[in-house]
Design a protein that fits this description.
- InterPro entries: FN3_dom (IPR003961), FN3_sf (IPR036116), Ig-like_dom (IPR007110), Ig-like_dom_sf (IPR036179), Ig-like_fold (IPR013783), Ig_sub (IPR003599), RTP_Phos/Ushers (IPR050713).
- This is Cytokine receptor.
- Keywords: Membrane, Transmembrane, Transmembrane helix.
- This protein is mainly beta.
- The protein folds into eight domains: 86 residues, Immunoglobulins (Immunoglobulin-like), CATH 2.60.40; 91 residues, Immunoglobulin-like (Sandwich), CATH 2.60.40; 98 residues, Immunoglobulins (Immunoglobulin-like, Sandwich), CATH 2.60.40.10; 101 residues, Immunoglobulin-like (Sandwich), CATH 2.60.40; 102 residues, Sandwich (Immunoglobulin-like); 94 residues, Sandwich (Immunoglobulin-like), CATH 2.60.40.10; 84 residues, Sandwich (Immunoglobulin-like); 142 residues.
- Helix content is 11%, strand content 34%.
- Strand 41 and strand 42 form a beta hairpin.
- The longest helix is centred in the C-terminal third of the chain and has 32 residues.
- The radius of gyration is 65 Å and the shape is extended.
- 29% of the residues are buried.
């Protein structure tokens, strides 16, 4: 055990902080906020209230020092607020505490719901004002349809469990809740429980909402049918009235689109309505809304959303002719002209387009002798004082004339003083007096009062300088014959008045009131007209109205420029026009500036009175050309290869409304229609070009040009070269430079293209040149599917500040389109050094490339199909022939490779020098093995047992080669001395002489068959014969057994070998190159120096005494007597 002291180290990390960081209080409560420092410096703590911007510093009753690190702020009797208090040391803020002062949750007063066409319900309420953060939860459920007269808590009972309705914030502190999935239109009573919570309390409210009483129908889809000139039929689709307990009613609002007057019509139950008493050829708007009859009838919010459509009523002929009051004509004092007046029909009575009036003059036989059309309400005819004239007036539009017409009779004035005294008013007694903004017309009655029917009084707005004519329509009123005056309605305006005395058989027509000659009468307000004469003058016209000019002293005309300070009070703008010098009816104010607004007013005055000021009229002088735009300059950094941004200041003197500004550069004019625009981007410029730019301003005329500036655009992408042409004889390609160089055109790229039938292109060669021509050579054709052509592109090279950075420059490889440069492909006539290639490839990274699109030459070189096809056929045939030869040689090679050699008896003694299988025979046992092999050969020839020769050993390679080469001794390579040194035999004849011949009979073979164990010359691995696939790469060898095998074992083994080697007789080459045992059979049984014979197993049926592919000795002897050399190839 170990004893010791356990030391506990506690490290306290002190930081500046305020506690709490958030504080909720009820109104009137007290609270404290603690501020803690990391240093002992609490005496310097002070607090700052952000809401009132009040600094609370020590010493103060509100701050208490708790310890050297902590100070406490006390908030007493807190007022409703959402404030922040900061704890500070000098100017450094330590922390902030947020203080919320409010109330417990209070009741919601405007909770309401609406159901929209029994599809879903939406409820909303306004959050009561409270500085404390208050959370609301709304739950709902359904109840039975009977109001429970129980305690209030039972009002929250629902049939099933409550479900929560998710509240969403809206505008104006509103919450919204939509009930869609769990809304059931067949349930009439919904119960809502609203729960409000904050840090100081909780409040619950229950609301019972009757489904049928809050339904707002869907918008009405209606059609407008059967539109006539005075009515229209409306039809709409039926609502799903099955849910509406008391059905629906509809409100149809018809609005006059010209007067904006509207009216409402209501329809219950029906789904159609006919609106009548419409004006013809008149635009209307119709709105239709629906409302459930179960909701509060006074609640307009329960109407459905209005569906509005527009239509025009049809046209029809005017319904009536204009009214022609008695005496509505005037005969000029010269009695040369007659003017008729009639009522003007209102626009709503015209009933169609192209409205006009038709005036027909009818003779005594009711035949129309003259027809006149006019759009005005007055017309003049030549006056004829010889007979009574009848005029018939109708209204008409594009559909035709009104059915009715009104007539007026114009009587001749005659020369009888009797008529004048009896039926005509005395003109001197007709007077009009202006007072209190009204006119009073007075007259003396004619002498014949008895036959007088009545008077017609006419009034209208006067035409300036034409006191007896009307400006606009004329108005009239019939006055009783006993009246002698008439007063117009109070309107502060000048009027022309006239009167006619109406008799059954005579009418003088209209007699105009001339003027008032009473000096003491009130002077009326003048009517003036102003017009602009030119860009420096205006014309003022007036008349004195009902005041006789003889009592007037003059007119006071005052004008001023409203845009100039104090201009109206300037006395120099007042002109007095005195009548004693000249009778004035107009005046021209001159020396004004162009397009300057001038305001003026006038009044007339007599020696004793001053008339009322006329209405103020303002007008501008006509426009003139403005001054030139100022300070035209180029915006720095705005130049590109195609554009530039310019700016200017507007003209100092506009002299009118600037309708456009024109920017001119070279041969281009650009018009700017925005008058407030003082900048413009010049576009469609040519790259690497110089321009001179100026700006003009326009009103009615064009200003002088502004100052001129010069602009040079940046280098860009050139257009493609033009007119690429190839001369056939000398292989010369030429081209013209691009129409838009867009730069210096440092070089051209010439590319040779190889195209194939699948439209793919490969660039085979590329050359660079400064010239616009070079000589080329088309390569030889390789395929009939290929064709060759040339293309050319231009290239600009620019430094960083010279090119347009809005254009992405090309890399060198992209400029070449991925092709490979070959300088000798296209050579210009004028020698060029390698400078152009060096400049292209070895320029630094500050150079950027811009290549034009390619221009293709029209000449295409197509490869012909005949020679290529011949080449292809020859190549295919040659390949086929080589394949056959190769196959034949390979077959022979494999056949020869699989041949096994059985040594002749004379060479058996040399076997110790060679390797059989994987074993090398030593000199000591070579003789035994050779003897065993020789015995095996002679005794077991009928059983297919042979010693195998491994062809993989170098020492054995020459066995087969000698045989294939026709050598007379296939075993030449086996001849050697006892020391192991190899001796080459110079020629086959010497070897033939040295070899001894021998013969062996069947009896000798049989006698020796049992003296040598068969296992001495058996195959190395029997498993190879049984499982050749698994051991294909293993070699056969010679194994020596320590004991003799029995005859049964030997026979079984021989049968196995014979069976395995029967098909095929020749083992595959993959077994190590061993050959079948019979291939070199005769080499050991015959005099091989004289007869090197190879006999195939295919000839076994043709040769006598042949078993299992072996030739018996007797048969061999017979063959050797008859055949000198037999060559049989192994199949």
């Amino acid at each position: 055990m170990f004893s010791g002291v356990l030391i506990r180290v506690v490290v306290v990390l002190s930081i500046d902080k305020m506690d709490p960081t958030s504080l909720s209080l009820l109104i009137g409560e007290n609270a404290t906020i603690k501020c803690t420092l990391s240093d002992a410096n609490s005496s310097r703590i002070w607090f700052y209230e952000e809401r009132s911007r009040r600094r609370i510093q020590q010493p103060s009753d509100d701050i208490q020092i708790l310890d050297p690190f902590t100070a406490i702020l006390t908030i007493r009797n807190a007022e409703e607020q959402k404030g922040r208090y900061q704890c500070k040391i000098q100017a450094q803020a330590i922390g902030v505490s947020e203080v919320y002062v409010g109330t417990k949750p209070t009741n919601v007063t405007d909770f309401k719901c609406k159901v929209y066409d029994y599809e879903y319900m939406e409820c909303s309420f306004t959050r009561p004002k409270n500085m404390l953060l208050t959370q609301y939860e709304l739950q709902y459920g359904t109840s039975d349809d009977k109001e429970k007269k129980t305690q209030s808590e039972d009002r929250c009972q629902v049939e099933e469990r409550y479900r929560v309705c998710l509240l969403q914030d809206g505008d104006d502190n509103k919450f919204y809740c939509n009930i869609t999935d769990r809304y059931f239109p067949v349930r009439n009573l919904y119960v809502f429980k609203l729960t409000a919570r904050n840090d100081k309390g909780k409040n619950e409210q229950c609301f019972r909402i009757h489904n049928d009483e809050i339904v707002v129908p869907a918008a009405i889809e209606f059609n407008i049918n059967n539109i006539t000139s005075d009515s229209v039929m409306l039809k709409w689709k039926k609502h799903n009235v099955g849910y509406y307990p008391r059905n629906l009613k509809y409100r149809i609002n018809l609005r006059d689109n010209r007067t904006n007057e509207d009216k409402d019509e209501y329809v219950n139950w029906n789904r159609s309505a006919i609106i009548k008493n419409l004006k013809a050829y008149w635009p209307y708007a119709i709105k239709i809304q629906a409302k459930s009859m179960a909701v509060d009838d006074d609640d307009d919010t329960m109407w459905s959303e209005a569906t509005e459509k527009y239509f025009n009523t049809s046209q029809r002929k005017p319904d009536r002719a204009p009214k022609l009051p008695l005496g509505s004509f005037y005969i000029y004092n010269t009695e040369t002209q007659l003017r008729l007046y009639w009522e003007q029909l209102e626009e709503s009575e015209q009933n169609g387009p192209e409205f006009h009036y038709i005036i027909n003059e009818i003779n005594e036989d009711d035949i129309i002798i003259n027809t006149t059309r006019t759009n005005d309400t007055t017309i003049a005819f030549p006056y004829n004082n010889n007979h009574i004239r009848t005029f018939n007036i109708k209204s008409a539009n594009i559909l035709g004339e009104s059915e009715e017409s009104n007539s007026i009779l114009v009587y001749p004035s005659g020369n009888s003083n009797y008529l004048e005294r009896q039926y005509v008013l005395n003109e001197n007694s007709i007077a009009k007096i202006y007072h209190n903004k009204s006119y009073t017309l007075s007259w003396s009655p004619p002498q014949n009062i008895k036959d007088l029917l009545n008077y017609t009084v006419f009034w209208c707005l006067p035409k300036i300088e034409l006191p007896n004519q009307c400006k606009g329509p004329i108005h009239f009123k019939y006055i009783n014959k006993n009246e002698i005056n008439f007063t117009t309605e109070p309107k502060d305006r000048s009027l022309n008045l006239a009167i006619s005395a109406n008799y059954p058989y005579f009418n003088k027509g209209m007699q105009w009131a001339q003027c008032s000659g009473d000096v003491s009468s009130e002077l009326m307000k003048m009517e003036i007209e102003v017009s602009a004469v030119n860009d420096s003058a205006i014309l003022v016209k007036w008349n004195s109205g009902s005041v006789c000019a003889s009592i007037l002293k003059g007119y006071n005309l005052r004008y001023w420029l409203p845009n100039e300070q104090g201009a109206k009070d300037n006395n120099n703008a007042t002109i007095d026009l005195l009548r004693e010098k000249q009778e004035h009816r107009n005046y021209t104010i001159t020396n004004l500036r162009p397009y300057t607004e001038v305001c003026l007013s006038m009044f007339m005055y007599s020696p004793t009175k001053q008339g009322h000021n006329s209405d103020t009229k303002c007008i501008k002088t006509k426009q003139a050309a403005p001054s030139a735009p100022r300070n035209l300059n180029l915006v720095t950094g705005s130049i590109t290869s195609k554009s530039a941004l310019i700016k200017w200041e507007p003209p100092a003197i506009r002299n009118g409304e600037l309708t456009m500004r024109k920017s001119a550069y070279d041969a281009f004019d650009k018009t700017i229609t925005s008058i407030n625009q003082t900048f413009y981007t010049l576009t469609s410029l040519n790259s690497y070009s110089n321009y001179e730019v100026y700006v003009t301003a326009h009103t009615v005329d064009e200003s002088k040009p502004s100052n001129r500036i010069n602009i040079s655009t940046l280098i860009g992408i050139p257009s493609n070269p033009c007119n690429v042409n190839i001369t056939e004889n000398d292989g010369l390609i030429t081209w013209d430079p691009p129409m838009l160089p867009s730069g210096r055109l440092e070089l051209y790229v010439v590319a040779l293209i190889r195209s194939s039938n699948d439209s793919s292109e490969i660039i085979e060669s590329i050359s660079l040149t400064k010239e616009r021509s070079c000589r080329f050579r088309i390569p030889e054709c390789y395929s009939a599917y290929y064709s060759y052509s040339l293309k050319v592109r231009a290239v600009n090279i620019a430094a960083d500040m010279e090119y347009d950075h809005e254009i992405e420059p090309m890399s060198r490889n992209l400029t070449l389109d991925g092709g490979q440069i070959k300088k000798k492909f296209c050579i210009p006539d004028q020698e060029e050094n390698d400078e152009i290639y060096d400049k292209f490839w070895f320029s630094d990274n500050t150079k950027f490339y811009f290549a034009s699109p390619w221009t293709y030459s029209p000449r295409v070189y197509k490869c012909t199909s005949t020679p290529i096809f011949a080449y292809i056929v020859a190549i295919i045939m040659l390949g086929f022939l080589l394949g056959l030869i190769s196959y034949w040689l390979r077959s022979k090679y494999r056949e020869m490779k699989d041949i096994e050699v059985i040594l002749p008896e004379a060479l058996v003694d040399q076997v110790s020098k060679y390797k059989f299988g994987n074993n090398s025979l030593s000199q000591s046992n070579a003789t035994d093995v050779s003897a065993a092999c020789k015995k095996e050969i002679h005794t077991q020839i009928s059983r297919n047992n042979d010693c195998l020769v491994n062809f993989n050993q170098k020492e054995n390679h020459q066995l087969l080669s000698n045989m294939f080469n026709g050598s007379t001794n296939v075993l030449t390579s086996l001849s050697s001395d006892n020391s192991g040194e190899k001796e080459e035999i110079e020629n086959n004849e010497e070897l033939t002489d040295e070899q001894q011949s021998y013969e062996t009979t069947n009896e000798e073979l049989s006698s020796n068959s049992s003296s040598i164990p068969r296992t001495d010359c058996s195959y190395d691995e029997r498993s190879i014969l049984q499982n050749t696939v698994e051991n294909t790469n293993k070699n056969f060898g010679i194994q020596v057994s320590g004991q003799d095998a029995t005859d049964d074992e030997i026979e079984d083994f021989n049968q196995t070998v014979t069976t395995d080697l029967e098909i095929p007789r020749i083992l595959p080459m993959s077994t190590g190159g061993y050959v079948t045992p019979n291939t070199l059979l005769l080499a050991s049984n015959l005099n091989t120096t004289e007869r090197p014979t190879v006999i195939s197993m295919q000839t076994s049926n043709a040769l006598p005494n042949m078993k299992n592919g072996y030739i018996q000795t007797s048969a061999v002897k017979q063959l050797m007597l008859n055949i000198n050399i037999v060559h049989v190839f192994v199949a």
